[in-house]
Amino acid sequence: MGLNVTKKILKSYLLEGSMLPNEQITIKVDQTLGHDLTGIMAAQILESVQAEKVSTETSVFYCDHNVIAASSENTDDHMYLKTSAQRYGVYFSKPGNGICHFLHVQRFGKPGKVMLGADSHTPTSGALGMIAIGSGGLSVAKCMVGEGFKLTTPKVLNIKLTGELQPGVSAKDITLEALRIL
Protein backbone atom coordinates (compact mmCIF):
# COMPACT_ATOMS: atom_id res chain seq x y z
CA MET A 1 0.00 0.00 0.00
CA GLY A 2 1.31 3.46 -0.91
CA LEU A 3 1.75 6.42 1.38
CA ASN A 4 -1.22 8.60 2.32
CA VAL A 5 -1.13 12.36 1.71
CA THR A 6 0.07 13.17 5.24
CA LYS A 7 3.00 10.79 5.03
CA LYS A 8 3.87 11.92 1.49
CA ILE A 9 4.10 15.52 2.65
CA LEU A 10 6.10 14.64 5.78
CA LYS A 11 8.48 12.45 3.77
CA SER A 12 9.10 15.22 1.23
CA TYR A 13 9.92 17.68 4.05
CA LEU A 14 12.00 15.27 6.13
CA LEU A 15 15.31 16.73 7.34
CA GLU A 16 16.22 14.12 9.98
CA GLY A 17 14.93 10.78 11.19
CA SER A 18 12.90 8.01 9.61
CA MET A 19 9.19 7.75 8.98
CA LEU A 20 8.74 4.83 11.36
CA PRO A 21 5.80 5.03 13.80
CA ASN A 22 6.56 6.95 17.00
CA GLU A 23 10.07 7.93 15.83
CA GLN A 24 11.25 11.51 16.24
CA ILE A 25 11.66 13.36 12.96
CA THR A 26 12.65 16.88 11.97
CA ILE A 27 10.82 18.55 9.10
CA LYS A 28 11.31 21.73 7.09
CA VAL A 29 8.64 24.41 7.56
CA ASP A 30 7.36 26.61 4.68
CA GLN A 31 4.99 28.90 6.54
CA THR A 32 4.67 30.35 10.03
CA LEU A 33 1.90 32.19 11.80
CA GLY A 34 2.01 34.29 14.96
CA HIS A 35 -0.47 36.69 16.49
CA ASP A 36 -0.25 39.73 18.72
CA LEU A 37 0.46 37.59 21.79
CA THR A 38 2.78 34.89 20.44
CA GLY A 39 4.24 36.91 17.57
CA ILE A 40 5.83 39.33 20.03
CA MET A 41 8.00 36.51 21.38
CA ALA A 42 8.92 35.37 17.88
CA ALA A 43 9.88 38.93 16.88
CA GLN A 44 12.00 39.36 20.01
CA ILE A 45 13.82 36.11 19.26
CA LEU A 46 14.49 37.21 15.68
CA GLU A 47 15.94 40.40 17.12
CA SER A 48 18.04 38.59 19.73
CA VAL A 49 19.64 36.23 17.18
CA GLN A 50 20.25 39.19 14.86
CA ALA A 51 18.29 37.66 11.99
CA GLU A 52 18.28 39.65 8.78
CA LYS A 53 15.24 38.11 7.06
CA VAL A 54 13.11 35.06 7.72
CA SER A 55 13.99 31.97 5.70
CA THR A 56 10.45 30.66 5.38
CA GLU A 57 8.45 31.11 2.17
CA THR A 58 5.64 32.82 4.06
CA SER A 59 5.49 34.15 7.62
CA VAL A 60 2.65 36.28 8.95
CA PHE A 61 2.05 38.28 12.14
CA TYR A 62 -1.68 38.75 12.74
CA CYS A 63 -3.18 41.28 15.17
CA ASP A 64 -6.38 39.55 16.20
CA HIS A 65 -6.20 38.73 19.91
CA ASN A 66 -5.66 42.12 21.60
CA VAL A 67 -7.60 44.45 19.38
CA ILE A 68 -9.47 46.56 21.92
CA ALA A 69 -7.32 49.56 22.74
CA ALA A 70 -8.07 49.61 26.47
CA SER A 71 -4.52 50.78 27.01
CA SER A 72 -1.57 51.95 24.99
CA GLU A 73 0.19 48.58 25.43
CA ASN A 74 -1.92 46.98 22.69
CA THR A 75 -1.08 49.75 20.25
CA ASP A 76 2.59 49.52 21.19
CA ASP A 77 2.58 45.74 20.64
CA HIS A 78 0.91 46.14 17.26
CA MET A 79 3.42 48.77 16.16
CA TYR A 80 6.27 46.53 17.32
CA LEU A 81 4.89 43.64 15.26
CA LYS A 82 4.39 45.90 12.24
CA THR A 83 7.94 47.26 12.31
CA SER A 84 9.36 43.77 13.00
CA ALA A 85 7.39 42.39 10.07
CA GLN A 86 8.82 45.08 7.79
CA ARG A 87 12.33 44.47 9.09
CA TYR A 88 12.32 40.67 8.70
CA GLY A 89 10.19 40.17 5.58
CA VAL A 90 7.05 39.00 7.38
CA TYR A 91 3.52 39.80 6.25
CA PHE A 92 1.60 41.97 8.74
CA SER A 93 -2.15 41.72 9.23
CA LYS A 94 -3.47 44.77 11.06
CA PRO A 95 -6.16 44.75 13.76
CA GLY A 96 -9.62 44.34 12.27
CA ASN A 97 -8.58 42.21 9.28
CA GLY A 98 -10.00 39.05 10.84
CA ILE A 99 -9.07 35.94 12.78
CA CYS A 100 -5.60 34.55 12.04
CA HIS A 101 -6.45 30.92 11.35
CA PHE A 102 -9.30 31.83 8.96
CA LEU A 103 -7.27 34.51 7.20
CA HIS A 104 -4.36 32.13 6.74
CA VAL A 105 -6.60 29.55 5.07
CA GLN A 106 -8.02 32.22 2.75
CA ARG A 107 -4.82 34.05 1.85
CA PHE A 108 -1.73 31.91 2.35
CA GLY A 109 -2.46 28.22 2.88
CA LYS A 110 -1.51 25.86 0.05
CA PRO A 111 -1.95 22.12 -0.42
CA GLY A 112 1.23 20.13 0.15
CA LYS A 113 2.94 22.80 2.29
CA VAL A 114 3.98 22.66 5.95
CA MET A 115 2.99 25.39 8.40
CA LEU A 116 3.84 25.93 12.06
CA GLY A 117 1.64 28.40 13.88
CA ALA A 118 1.73 29.85 17.37
CA ASP A 119 -2.04 29.61 17.70
CA SER A 120 -4.13 26.69 18.95
CA HIS A 121 -6.37 26.81 15.87
CA THR A 122 -3.48 26.49 13.39
CA PRO A 123 -4.58 22.98 12.30
CA THR A 124 -7.56 24.62 10.56
CA SER A 125 -5.26 25.02 7.54
CA GLY A 126 -4.98 21.24 7.36
CA ALA A 127 -8.34 21.30 5.58
CA LEU A 128 -6.44 22.57 2.53
CA GLY A 129 -4.31 19.42 2.33
CA MET A 130 -1.30 20.87 4.07
CA ILE A 131 0.39 19.92 7.33
CA ALA A 132 -0.55 22.62 9.86
CA ILE A 133 0.76 22.25 13.41
CA GLY A 134 0.11 24.47 16.42
CA SER A 135 3.12 25.21 18.61
CA GLY A 136 4.65 27.98 20.69
CA GLY A 137 6.33 31.24 19.76
CA LEU A 138 9.83 29.85 20.38
CA SER A 139 9.37 26.94 17.96
CA VAL A 140 7.87 29.28 15.37
CA ALA A 141 10.80 31.70 15.68
CA LYS A 142 13.31 28.86 15.29
CA CYS A 143 11.61 27.78 12.07
CA MET A 144 11.53 31.38 10.83
CA VAL A 145 15.34 31.42 10.94
CA GLY A 146 15.69 28.10 9.15
CA GLU A 147 15.67 25.43 11.84
CA GLY A 148 13.50 22.39 11.34
CA PHE A 149 10.60 21.39 13.57
CA LYS A 150 10.90 18.24 15.67
CA LEU A 151 7.91 15.97 16.15
CA THR A 152 7.02 12.33 16.58
CA THR A 153 5.94 10.60 13.38
CA PRO A 154 2.16 10.72 13.71
CA LYS A 155 -0.12 7.73 13.48
CA VAL A 156 -2.51 8.40 10.62
CA LEU A 157 -5.97 6.84 10.71
CA ASN A 158 -8.37 6.15 7.87
CA ILE A 159 -11.91 6.77 9.08
CA LYS A 160 -14.61 5.83 6.60
CA LEU A 161 -18.03 7.37 7.16
CA THR A 162 -21.19 6.06 5.55
CA GLY A 163 -24.79 7.21 5.60
CA GLU A 164 -26.19 10.69 6.05
CA LEU A 165 -26.08 13.17 8.90
CA GLN A 166 -29.23 13.55 10.93
CA PRO A 167 -30.77 17.05 11.08
CA GLY A 168 -28.85 19.23 13.53
CA VAL A 169 -25.69 17.10 13.38
CA SER A 170 -22.63 18.89 11.99
CA ALA A 171 -19.19 17.83 10.80
CA LYS A 172 -17.82 19.07 14.13
CA ASP A 173 -20.15 16.67 15.96
CA ILE A 174 -18.73 13.80 13.89
CA THR A 175 -15.17 14.89 14.69
CA LEU A 176 -15.89 15.14 18.41
CA GLU A 177 -17.55 11.72 18.43
CA ALA A 178 -14.61 10.16 16.56
CA LEU A 179 -12.22 11.67 19.12
CA ARG A 180 -14.37 10.36 21.97
CA ILE A 181 -14.27 6.83 20.53
CA LEU A 182 -10.52 6.94 19.94
Automatic annotation (TrEMBL):
Q: Name one Pfam family in it.
A: Aconitase
- Extract the GO molecular function terms from the UniProt entry: 4 iron, 4 sulfur cluster binding; aconitate hydratase activity; homoaconitate hydratase activity; metal ion binding
> What are the Aconitase/3-isopropylmalate dehydratase large subunit alpha/beta/alpha domain coordinates in residue numbering?
8-179
Name one process (GO BP) from the record: tricarboxylic acid cycle
What domain of life? Bacteria
Q: What EC identifiers does the entry list? A: 4.2.1.36
Entry GO terms, CC: cytosol
Q: Which UniProt keywords apply?
A: Iron, Iron-sulfur, Lyase, Metal-binding
Entry-linked PANTHER family: ACONITATE HYDRATASE B (PTHR43160), ACONITATE HYDRATASE, MITOCHONDRIAL (PTHR43160:SF3)
Q: What is this protein called?
A: Homoaconitase large subunit
Gene label: hacA_2
